[in-house]
Amino acid sequence: MPANNTPLVTIFLLFLGLLRFDSFPGLQAATGKLASIPGLYVFGDSLVDAGNNNYLPISISKSNYPHNGVDFPNKKPTGRFCNGKNAADAIAEKFGLPLPPPYLSLRGLLERETRKSAAVTGVNFASGGAGIFNGSDQKLGQAIPLSKQVNNWLSIHNDLTTQLEPSEAQAHLLKSLFTIVIGSNDLFDYFGSFKLRQQSNPQQYTQLMADKLKEQLKRIHYTGARRFLIIGVGPIGCTPGKRAKNSTIHECDGDANMWCSLYNDALVKMLQQLKQELQGSMTYTYFDNFKSLEDIISNPAPYGFADVTSACCGNGGELNADLPCLPLAKLCSDRTKYLFWDRYGHPTEAAARTIVDLMLSDDSHYSSPITLTQLVST
């Protein structure tokens, strides 16, 4: 009898060993798989909003209508400014996590169990139109500024620490990924406001943006967060709407792109300083979204794109970008070939997935000081 049981015991122990091995953060180095993260928490603007603005009663910054969501499961317009899933969704899927639900969808009594679960696996706090500053959109109730998004995280943090033992909560926060995608709307506000341009020059304004973001990152870090994915501002001067204003050759708006570069430079320096201030307790990846999109636009074919200037969903003009993506808008037939979803420069699902693939590439061409894969393996 003992002799017959030995192989089964051995196999069982080997199986347990494999399960244990699979839990090591650096597993992807040996197997090609990504290291696991227990939770994904997303802060930002319409590039990663999962539908928070749907719950703002007077906001017009919503996308809960067709053609948005035409490629989402069941063709559902969820409030994502996209034909399907956005970059936050793609990151969650890469790590085998459920799509982080919008925070404002978790407030009712009927959502109590969903909220408890989401507090652990991840929540999306992003809001279309949001900025680092509390701009006019926020004052009018059109969007949720970053400071308020962090307040909302504090509420979820309380749920998380209530559910888990202190040591478990600490380990969970240590290994989770906190993603920040914001800044474009602050720049749009700047070059759209004569008053703001009178108050400060581009260098001063973009430095103020970086300083304000630093305050919010410190608030998140204080709660126990340690791993941050910070995505820089893309070349917003190359959005279809900006190109369409140049009625002859549809070139990118050079001034707008210059301001983006100024902010990204200030952001990189701020992150380096912040890590020093926090004595290395914060680890981060900065993803150069500007450079990655610039490369895709200059040579789209290797990435699978055929059109990197027009809006897939819109109306009017040569770039289909004179009007927003509304239910009566003209919709491109093959969304996988378009970089931009609408006149504002929101990426298509195909573009969002391409960008996330670049984030997870072993090539550090766009990521510093370490890649996202290295970040989640530390």
UniProtKB/TrEMBL annotation:
This is GDSL esterase/lipase At5g55050-like. Keywords: Hydrolase, Lipid degradation, Lipid metabolism, Signal. Gene3D superfamilies: SGNH hydrolase (3.40.50.1110). Pfam families: Lipase_GDSL. The keyword Cell inner membrane does not apply. CDD domains: SGNH_plant_lipase_like (cd01837). Residues 1-21 form the signal peptide. Belongs to the 'GDSL' lipolytic enzyme family.
